[in-house]
Amino acid sequence: MQLVTIGINHTTAPVEIREQIAFDAEKLPSALASLHLLPGVVETSIISTCNRTEIYCHISDDSDCDIRQWLHDFHQQPTDLLNQYLYQHHDKDAIHHLFRVACGLDSMVLGEPQILGQIKTAYSQALNAKTLGKTLGRLFQHAFTVAKQVRTDTEIGSSPVSVAFAAVSLAKQIFSNLADSTALLIGAGETIELAARHLHDNGIGRIIIANRTLERAHHLAEQVNGYAISLSEMPNHLAEADIVISSTASQLPILGKGTVERALKQRKRRPIFMVDIAVPRDIEAEVSTLEDIYLYCVDDLHEIIEENLQSRRDAALQAEDIVETQVENFTAWLRTQDAVPVIRAIREIAEKESEHLLKKSLKQLELGHDAEYVLNELARTLTNKLLHEPSRQLRQSGFNTDNNLIEAARSLFNIKD
User: Fold this and answer.
1) From 50, 57, 103, 297, the catalytic residue
2) What span, in angstroms and rounded, lies between the C-alpha atoms of 87 and 118?
3) What are phi and psi of 275, to 5 degrees?
4) Are 165 and 111 in contact (CB under 8 A)?
5) Which residue intervals of 154-189 are DSSP H helices?
6) Contact indicator for 296, 243 with CB cutoff of 8 Å
7) For residue 160, is pLDDT > 70?
8) Exposure class string for 286-306: b at 16+ Cβ within 10 A, else e
9) Fewer CB near the terminus (10 Å): N or C of the chain?
10) Distance CA 15, CA 399 (A)
11) 375 C-beta neighbours (distance < 10 Å), count
12) CA 265-267-273 angle, 5° bins
């Protein structure tokens, strides 16, 4: 069996490529089912976020399945279009990669905690789709444990650095006094919630939350003294916004150039600062061509994020040591799984022999044979039966000057010199 990871992330591909192969919540169950049907794929899970799409598979050794081609086909992309952006890891390297991702060591924002929740979601989705088994299930559970250890034992999460925090930091640079500004937040997921909290903590004058589900918008708005509207009402309130931060799961842009132009006219050309954190993007790229619009996507936030990372870099070195140790621990567990079929076969042989000899002994007792003699004969015969083949193999290894088997036997039976 092999562990395989194939993926694309913010370091290997720009947002316009990443958004082409993102899996939304509606497509994911069918994607998992389709991938699981590939010849040789035993288990699989898919992680899909704004910054990465990664496929994890446990496949049989003789499998010739082409996961890269499946990815192209599923997203209806031309063959080989994505290959220059994709990375691939096998076995120990795949384990190492997942552990680093879970700890936030492979994120755009070093040490960010959101990715762990996204991996847990991917784990649950694979469980629900019945594409997760013993090996991948154990791998993901171990990744959660490693991430928890890193959070507990290092300071990697001590600084409030995130994409949402970077967006708010940039807004503070553009608007010297946030108390005089209005922010329109589109969506109500974790990233928008973080942005809302950061804005609230930095004294933003007013927050409007727009979401497809009005109830979720109300729930978040209550926490930050904001005002909730439905997504359909959003164009009518756009002109009120000095700051727009958007992060929805929409597959199509929800803010077009025309809508923004109308808002600018109402604002009498007062500028709007926009951050589009979504993948696929929520705001049409053409909006950036408008005067008085300052539009940033997730990739543009990287420079701001860099300024806040130094305190996490030292902690990341400690985290890497923890990851290395835990990779060895999980690899050791994998090796023990190779022994399971052998142990099972040995037990079956022993149980078969003992059952046969026990029946024979019980018959002898029924015939009135001496009990002590029957028990001694049972013990002697069972011992000889169980040790005959190992003894023969060890004697043969002596003739063949194969000391490896002899040393293995010493270790197996804990024989001291």
Assistant:
1) 50
2) 20
3) -125, 120
4) no
5) 163-174
6) no
7) no
8) ebbebeebebbbbeebeebbe
9) C
10) 66
11) 12
12) 105
Tokens 């169950």 correspond to 29
**CA 13 to CA 22: how far, in whole Å?**
12
Mean local confidence (pLDDT), 234-240:
95
Read off the tokens for 52: 């990465």
At residue 138, the pLDDT reads 96
What is the torsional sign of CA 236, 179, 194, 303? positive
Using alpha carbons, list the distances in angstroms from residue 43 to 22, 46, 58, 74, 126.
20, 11, 5, 18, 9
| H helix and E strand count, the chain | 15, 10
- Give the tokens for residue 382: 């069972």
pLDDT tens string 329-355: 999 998 887 776 777 878 888 888 888
Domains of the chain: 2-158+312-336 (3.30.460.30), 163-306 (3.40.50.720)
- Cis peptide, bond prior to residue 280, ω within 30 of zero: yes
- Regarding pTM above 0.90, the answer is no
50 included as an active-site residue: yes
Enter the tokens of residue 268.
Answer: 């009498």
47, 54 Cβ separation under 8 angstroms: yes
φ and ψ at residue 270, rounded to 5 degrees: -65, 135
Q: What does the pLDDT read at residue 348?
A: 83
Taking residues 197-223, what's their average pLDDT? Answer: 93
